[in-house]
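Researcher: We're teaching a course module on how sequence relates to structure. For the next exercise, students receive a sequence and then see the predicted structure as tokens, so they can try to spot secondary structure elements on their own. Here is the exercise chain.
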Amino acid sequence: MSVNVDPEIDELRQLLEAQLQLHTDELSTLTAAGADPADAGEDPQTVTERITAASQAVADTTAALARIAEGTYGRCERCSGVIPAARLAILPRARRCVPCQARG
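Model: And here is the predicted structure for the students to work with:
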């Protein structure tokens, strides 16, 4: 059985994998800095906020990669409509189409 791989999805998967590595590296660095924020030269609150943002980015990117593996990537989690390629190019981790995202 051969698997047809959409070149656009493959490119986005590669981009997501690269982003996952960057976010994971950032989270590791921030976590180490969080142990002693003075070492990072940043306010402890700022370090905490950056850790939270990096953790969310890792989770969102991992979820996007899982959707690719499941074959549901590019479909809105709320309405099941197609998420336009232009939106995915800008925000490869997008879970929802623009109308559903705007509804909150």
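Model: If you want an answer key for the exercise: The mean pLDDT is 87. The first helix runs from residue 7 to 35.
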